[in-house]
Specification:
The protein is built from two helices and four strands, in the order E-H-H-E-E-E. By secondary structure, it is of the alpha+beta class. It has one domain.
């Protein structure tokens, strides 16, 4: 189920980091580039973000996240990550 996430909440911010870090580590390994900014983000960085965050839950567990910035002119997708445990389940379609 997709839910709007309150990334300003410290617990939620940690959950977001716990999804995105292993996902971006896997991506960095595949593309052989360690400079992906989200690899070094902390929960405080997530809490300071201007993005709107949504999450996909498998039961009570946050399995995937996306963030975006919406203006009158456009919608910009800023990040999309699925925890590697949940790869190949169609979460990031």
């Amino acid at each position: 189920m997709i839910q709007l996430l309150n990334h300003k909440d410290p617990h939620t911010a940690r959950c977001i980091v716990n999804v995105q870090r292993p996902a971006y580590e896997k991506e960095a390994e595949i593309i052989q580039f360690q400079g992906i900014p989200q690899l070094n983000e902390t929960a405080f960085d997530v809490m300071d973000s201007r993005d709107t965050f949504i999450g996909w839950f498998e039961g009570e567990e946050l399995a995937g996240i996306a963030s975006f910035i919406h203006t009158a002119e456009k919608l910009t997708i800023c990040r999309l990550a699925v925890h590697p445990v949940h790869f190949r389940k169609g979460i990031a379609m």
